[in-house]
Amino acid sequence: GAGVSQTPSNKVTEKGKYVELRCDPISGHTALYWYRQSLGQGPEFLIYFQGTGAADDSGLPNDRFFAVRPEGSVSTLKIQRTERGDSAVYLCASSLTVDQPQHFGDGTRLSIL
Amino acid sequence: GESVGLHLPTLSVQEGDNSIINCAYSNSASDYFIWYKQESGKGPQFIIDIRSNMDKRQGQRVTVLLNKTVKHLSLQIAATQPGDSAVYFCAEKLRGGADGLTFGKGTHLIIQP
Q1: Cβ contact (<8 Å) for B105 and A40?
Q2: How many CB pairs under 8 A join A and B?
Q3: In Å, how far is B101's CA from the nearest CA of chain A?
Q4: Residue B40 contacts by C-beta under 8 Å, 6 or more apart in sequence?
Q5: I need a surface site. Which of B41, B69, B93, B109 has the fewest CB within 10 A?
Q6: Going residue by residue through chain A (113 aa), what tens digit of pLDDT does each one get?
Q7: CATH at A59
Q8: Maximum Cα–Cα distance across chain A
Q9: Do the domain assignments include residue A105?
Q10: Which residues of A touch B103 (CB under 8 A)?
Q11: Residue range of the domain that includes A82
């Protein structure tokens, strides 16, 4: 079956621009997570959705980052006024319920020039 | 500091041998642990998980051991194959805490022919 799908796979943009990263979770998965992974590091938690609501956004680094999941399926991570330090791989994961294993997509590699 | 870490950044084993990847965690409030395999350019792939009410869990060619006394987690891979070459991450979730996973830095497993 289809796994977690993330688009685009790569995004290059200039400092100060706005970007949107999309995540299509596994069908039927109610929980959706965003992580950020820097080179040589493990993923770092950003935000968790249960259904349409952000149940935990404690990992978002600042108010330039926000995410939505309006219909409880697809989610978009939005970054305003991008900075070079935002360059990383942004990973999305979903799980059937919050107590089940999280399954990851292949991520969006974001490069801020 | 990180609550989850790995003892060795790189592990080299002969094809056909068994591999053991170790992970130390410091937060006794963690009650769920999970191992992921990540290949270059891909997202983390779920291998196996274990809850704190268990000491051992087996999957296909993999076994996870949990020692709560010394806060240690290990992943054993039997009869290592070239396709097992990847970075392996352990991750934890805190009991009653945020629903995002906390990852360690990872161990790079290299399979020698």
Answers
A1: yes
A2: 60
A3: 7
A4: none
A5: B69
A6: 589 999 999 999 999 999 999 999 999 999 999 999 998 899 999 999 999 999 899 999 999 999 999 999 999 999 999 999 999 999 999 999 888 999 999 999 999 99
A7: 2.60.40.10
A8: 39
A9: no
A10: 42-44
A11: 1-6+22-97
